[in-house]
Design a protein that fits this description.
65% of the residues lie in helices and 8% in strands. The N and C termini lie far apart (115 Å). A 5-stranded mixed β-sheet has the order 1-6-5-3-2. The protein has a two-stranded antiparallel sheet with strand order 4-7. It has helices spanning 4-19, 40-57, 62-83, 132-137, 190-197, 200-214, 218-231, 236-248, 252-265, 270-282, 286-299, 304-316, 320-333, 338-350, 354-367, 372-384, 388-401, 406-418, 422-435, 440-452, 456-469, 474-486, 490-503, 508-520, 524-537, 542-554, 558-575, 578-592, and strands at 35-39, 104-106, 109-120, 127-131, 140-146, 156-166, 176-180. β2 (104-106) and β3 (109-120) form a beta hairpin. The relative contact order is 0.04. By secondary structure, it is of the alpha+beta class. α6 (200-214) runs antiparallel to α7 (218-231) and α14 (338-350) packs parallel to α16 (372-384).
Length: 593
Amino acid sequence: MDWTTPLKAQQTDFIQRLKSAKLLHCDEKGQHSELTIISGQRLDQLRDFCWEMVKKYKPNDPQNYFINNMKGKLGEEVVKSRLADFVTEVDYEKRVGGDGKVDFTLTSDSSIGIQVKARNGNFDKIQWSISQEEIAKNAVLVCILIQEEVSEAQAEYNLILAGFLPTNMITSNTGKALVGIDELLYSGGLRSYLESLTSSEADEYMRLGNECIEKEDYQNAFGYYTQVLQLKPNNEDAYFDRAIARYYLGDKQGAIDDYNQAIKFNPNLAQAYYGRGYVRDDLGDKQGAIEDYTQAIKINPNYAKAYHNRGVVRSELGDKQGAIDDYTQAIKINPNYAKAYHNRGIVRNDLGDKQGAIEDYNLAININPNYANAYNGRGIVRKQLGDKQGAIDDYTQAIKFNPNYANAYYNRGVVRNESGDKPGAIDDYNQAIKFNPNYADAYYNRGIVRYELGDKQGAIDDYTQAIKFNPNDAEAYIGRGNVRDDLGDKQAAIDDYNLAIKINPNLAQAYYNRGVVRYALGNKQGAIDDYTQAIKFNPNYANAYYNRGLVRKDLGDKQGAIKDFQTAANIYKKEGKETDYQDAMQQLRKINK
């Protein structure tokens, strides 16, 4: 049998007794009663408070404002007299905005709200109204019937506890719900119902939700936490945990909404600010994320993860020193925070402190010898320092501890190619693409190596894939254009160089290469124009001067050609390119004969 069935039957009996005025009455505080009488000094205090509210806020209709306040406080006094210390005190603070749509909470659980509504009139005709916001914020509606007309002069009020209704049983398609006395549950069951909300049912749903989170069953976790909130609408822990489930289900805005609720019911819940910051960062709201991490740190100055995550966002926003400061603070709080060492190593490398970066990666690896990301990061720095074998060793370790680590394969492929091991580079790029089929850079680099190994069609295929996954990769268009030129498809090559220039109008290499093809096609003025553009964007582009000199020589521009060959020779000499320098000087000698 449903627990509400006996209370509905008792409510029917109560309504019959109400018709005959045979009601329970008890003046002992905290004992069940249906009738409460307020008069004398107690009533004078209520009246004085309501007039103070009128004086303070000066409403347009003082009399009506007084009556509405009086009705509310009469109802609250009834509930307080019956539930005593089981609920919080009646709020007599003279402030605007009222009680925030919650009249009482349980003293043992501030998440359980009670909304009190008091009306006067005939019991079989009146209805008590409750708003959607009040339904959301409270666990139960308690209805009070005032038998007398409320006025300043009334000397005594006979107040009837008409019944209660759990808010999860109230439905409405409009802004407010209306409830009649025959829809209420008998008031004698009010305390028992409230006690049940703090009992094992909600705790069991929380336990089940937590088990689902551990199993990564986020859909069922969401359901259990929602059931907790139906029983305990102000439960901050349920909102917090449901936010986690929502995030992993992809409902990031819903997660933020739940974190907001958790913070609303517990403004000092540092973990909720941390969680909200994490989601905001994920949504691109970097400044909002920093504000949340900062608030979490303010509440809990030893919150190492909040320092760490704020460091990550600061680094992304370009505040590298701020990021280092945060990572350092996280490490101070938790000296074994391997991820903080790793991320500080990244920023130190960005700032040019390569030795400091290696030291941080070493510390991260000492704490966690299986830390694949730290090996990969250290490999990057070692490569930059010229230690190619050390870099390969680190990338190999990263792959050992994470065999699906596409970026580590890619990085090792780059170093192997630079070291002359082109088949090894191809193998690594193949693995990178296997574990990340959309890895544009891996296709691009594999295309370079395939071209160098003579596999021109394979190179074109790779450049095309790189462009597919990164349509704004100007270098991939240049690479494909070069191969198409080699294969004799010069117009297709020009098309690719055009696209590269459209993406990056300052790309000297694209102009230079297009100039080479234009010259081969007999478009000498077009070639000169392209070499001139290449020189504009790279004033030290010796090959562009040299080639422009050749075209000018063909066109009979002797002085222009001399000037270009001389400039090219000067740059080649400065760069230590002796063979190229001699070629340029030879051209000068031929012209000057």
